[in-house]
Amino acid sequence: MEVLYKDYFISDDKIRINRQFVLEYLAQSYWANRRPPERILQSIESSHCYGVYHNNNQIGFARIITDGATMFYLCDVFVLQEYQGQGIGKRLVELITTSEEYEWMTGVLGTLDAHGLYEQFGFQKNSERFMSRPPQGIIKHRENR
């Protein structure tokens, strides 16, 4: 998947992921700052990853863990602070959560500060940190009856 959004390029081509960039960002994040770098690199290799790029520089990232059939876990979503407020993160989450690949799966994620973003895509808060959403394909199917 490759999508142009404004001046930004979003891709799920794992070869494009700047692993050092991801390591440095996650080392400063509240959710992954205790993960050893080798674990982060292993998680990238074992997940479906998305990168956001501006002028060939990576500015954002997201990762999906899935069984490929019933559920996905959306994690490590970020856009550099200087690029926030332009709809980039929203477009990234939209591309992921509305893809046919995940449409029939239950989605789960954890966040402390971005509930409003994820609620736009059907996620509901079920604790202070975790959110989930039912498979959107089922909802669409029921609405079309």
UniProtKB/TrEMBL annotation:
Name used for this protein in its record: Acetyltransferase (GNAT) domain-containing protein
CDD domains named in the record: NAT_SF (cd04301)
Domain N-acetyltransferase: 13-145
Family annotation (Pfam families): Acetyltransf_7 (PF13508)
Gene3D superfamilies: 3.40.630.30
Organism from which the protein derives: Paenibacillus macquariensis
InterPro entries named in the record: Acetyltransferase_Butenolide, Acyl_CoA_acyltransferase, GNAT_dom
Domain of life of the native organism: Bacteria
